[in-house]
Design brief:
This protein has 762 residues and is of the alpha+beta class. The chain is elongated and about 110 Å long.
Length: 762
Amino acid sequence: MKKFKTTSLGYFVTVFVFTITASAQVQQGHTNNSKFKQLYDQFADPNRYHNASGAPGVDYYQQKVDYVMDVEIDDAKSKFYGEETITYTNNSPDQLPYLWLQLDQNIRKKDAPALEKNGAGNSATVRPSSFVSDFINDPFDGGFNIDWVKDANGKALKYKINQTMMRVDLPQAIAPGASYVFKIKWWYNINDHVEKRGRSGFEFFPEDGNKAYVIAQFFPRLCVYNDVEGWQNYQFWGNGEFALEFGDYQVNITVPSDHILEATGSLQNPKEVLTREEYRRFQDSADSFDKPVIIVTQAEAIAKESQFSTKKSTWKFEAINVRDFGFATSRKFIWERQAVQVGSKKVMAVSLYPKEGNPLWEEYSTKAVLQTLKSYSKYTFDYPYPKAVSVHAKNQGMEYPMICWNYGRPAKDGTYSDRTKFGMISVIIHEVGHNYFPMIVNSDERQWGWMDEGLDTFMQYLAEQDFGETYPQSIGALEKYPSRRGDPQKIVPYMAGDQNFISPIMSNPENVFQLGPNAYAKPATALNILRETVMGRETFDHAFKTYSQRWMFKHPTPEDFFRSMEDASAVDLDWFWRGWFYSTDVVDIGVKNVKRYYFSDEPDLEAKARLESYGYDLENLPGLVFKIDEDSENFDPEMAKQNAIDGSKILKDYMTAEGIDAGVVPPKYFYEVEFEKPGGLVMPLIVEYSYADGSSERVTYPVQLWRKNDASVKKIIASDKELIGVTVDPDLETADVNSENNSWPKKESPSDFEKFKEKIKG
């Protein structure tokens, strides 16, 4: 079958289309409202710290903060005690007369402003546990209690606490390139994290009287000081997460001697804290590439549950170039480790869970860790740390360098649904994946939640699909892994929702109505569409890897991401960032009209009016050929049933003169297809044309199609086959919120096509 080109107006000879000038009335001007204009009005100007390509500039700097800590958990009283020595290195060009630290535990103080940040009465339902917590029980008395702040010589330093921030005033400013050493001693009450979904704390198990601790934000931590904002000074209100500096950690953690503990960093004294058998298994696990080595079995963990040792052990960890520190500890923990090769480095994939997590956790946790390390490294950079740990904790999904807590608990009889299984696998992939974003590509979570959550959720989608291929038994009869976020159609209900409760992605996480769709799902879907539909996988993957590797162990801004993606791909994406990230516009592209037409040497009334308005002599036209479509008063139904060029002697004579009739068969059918765009987002126009002989043709028109008319565009279809159907976005890959206008004839009105055929037949 011969294929004919799809074109704008014209095929063999020029077909003129004239525009009738409106009135001579002077109209008001306007500024550039094009969806394709550059984002200069939104982006921060490039400079010597963050350059125009999206890479770190020649003068880029970041501070370094090192911690040496001794901390202890009082298991009986649920109290935490700590003392730290902090070495702050000022790599900035500025004098620093004071230092700001984060006191995130202060969000749990009885009088914390964060407890009153929301209005009441928004929900018609209430959980019994929430009712008791809110109205029956005494408020939890949390927050840091600072015993003292001293310099390296033991001299007291002045400090001021402002909600979740503490300013330490220095005797003299820290000069550029200089370091300063000071110490802090503190304690706090550890919260039950199951109540009110705390990011860290303990879970109490009434059946055996034990607690499982997942501990984070447990020490006063330095705020970021950089060229973008100076001191990061946005208080911790609960949703916006963390902005932190890189440094080296030496942390000694004292817990009951029958506890098993995992943490950020490498364990320095395994012989001291493990039994002889546990130590042997620990050593064996270093080369366990085929399957996990169980260091503490379920039977051994159950035996420990009734011991409640009064002795103590101190676990010593060292972590190099990390931005934070977390740990988990309990006598209830089963412990397994498996080695995986990532690039040239051997990494330990680790799982820590109580018996309540089985049989689900022993089957899938370490597999999920392994898959995450492989998939994320493939698309970004080789995982640089020595291990990645997945810890089971009820209702949790939280991340720290090398360690994270994850939900997913079977029923008491060990049974579980697919929802529980896939939910657990997905949250492990997501939280382990946070090692890449933001633990290594260290964005400011407090300000831009999407830069870690959105990028991580996008990568999670890719890793989940890989997981389904690597472990096909896990998905059974499903065609692919059932990812909750990432597929374009799954974001449609949110984007099509009430605009009063939708915020642009480029919003602070504290100020959005629906954090999950805003910071996780929509940016992940946008990047998936960017990869699959706009840029193509190879181009996108190269650009995404470029961004990831440019900003390893550094602090990128949104502009650094946007600019890097364009710089490494040669694709101008300002229209995409503007629509998807800076607005709440939606995708809605459809088929407005389809007309068949033929060519004639005689103009219809509309064409005559246009010609006359431009001063043409209608009696002496210069060999023009005119389109006659179904709406024309000159439309002849009998002529429409013939070949579309039969009505023009001028056209046929021209073809004969050019030798075209000598074996070249011109297209028989010509159609004008008009596409409309009620939605605000511009997107590539993906169309499937269906023909009467059962064949179809897929065409993707570039997004630039909309650059001169943001409401509608027309395309001419020239074919030797009768067109019977037009479908926009046939594979649902653009998150189009309205499918009712995506087809011609409309799917819900099959009689429309019969009406069209009758119209053609006359």
